[in-house]
């Protein structure tokens, strides 16, 4: 069974032989990133026209400091990414896949999504205010983003057998709660995500969502709008036991142990303890891909998570060729 087949079974609870693995840093990754929209030109401008400022002494993506949307009329003046151009970029990327990569589950990473791009275009504080005083602005900006992604998916429809998922990034949580209320999320974003998941599913693609913070109370809504896999990096913040009890078997997860504390400041022993709790987010029928976390995480802690899932799931399944050694050695 190829890595591609294993991840397809993991996500759809079709009895995979093991958990999925997303550990390129340790030589085992069941996936391949075909194309990533996290692009900027020589002036720091992304495909949406946002100009990013990066502080040379601070390791981060940077910050958008100019927000072009002052009025509703300004949205019509924006230039969205060109679906045809990016569809061609994906087509060329697919053609360049190696035989080894073709055995893997293939995704397209959108970088920022339909919650974050409007923040860059409008400004986060004003977007929050708009939900109360100018809801039509929020609707228009979300639709502006979704319209592009739907058009982009239509462009890559001829490649539907080559691409397994589209992976969007929208951080909906703070350290202890959601950024907006669930009623507001449902009012402004549930229908927009449903447009996206429908467009992906019509092509036979899965829809993944990365979302940092405590997003536990939105997972039910994520399920209802058709999101297939959730990638929350603050897993302890979300609540290991709570997520396992409420959602295991209902949505798949790509996750590691807590990124804000355990991976960055904890010990390998603490990471193994949390990895055991994380394992319960999956079921005997699938639902879990294990991964590390690159930002300021200690390598020995990521290794501890990797080793835990290797020992408890991967090696017992008989997957040894990826390691270049025989099982049990």
Describe this structure in words.
The chain is of the alpha/beta class. The chain folds into two domains: 1-36 and 232-322, no CATH class; 40-208, TIM Barrel (Alpha-Beta Barrel). It contains 14 helices and eleven strands. It has helices spanning 3-11, 72-75, 83-95, 99-102, 116-122, 124-133, 135-155, 182-202, 219-224, 235-238, 240-247, 262-265, 268-278, 299-317, and strands spanning 20-23, 28-29, 31-36, 52-53, 63-64, 105-112, 165-169, 206-210, 229-231, 252-255, 288-291. The radius of gyration is 20 Å and the shape is globular.
State the end-to-end distance: 22 Å
Derived structural class: alpha/beta
Question: How does the overall form come out from the CA principal axes?
Answer: globular
Strands, count: 11
Q: Can you lay out the helices and strands and say which pair or pack?
A:
Layout: H1 3-11, E1 20-23, E2 28-29, E3 31-36, E4 52-53, E5 63-64, H2 72-75, H3 83-95, H4 99-102, E6 105-112, H5 116-122, H6 124-133, H7 135-155, E7 165-169, H8 182-202, E8 206-210, H9 219-224, E9 229-231, H10 235-238, H11 240-247, E10 252-255, H12 262-265, H13 268-278, E11 288-291, H14 299-317
Parallel strand pairs: 1-11, 3-6, 6-7, 7-8, 8-9, 9-10, 10-11
Antiparallel strand pairs: 1-2, 4-5
Helix pairs in contact: 3-7, 5-6, 6-7, 7-8, 13-14
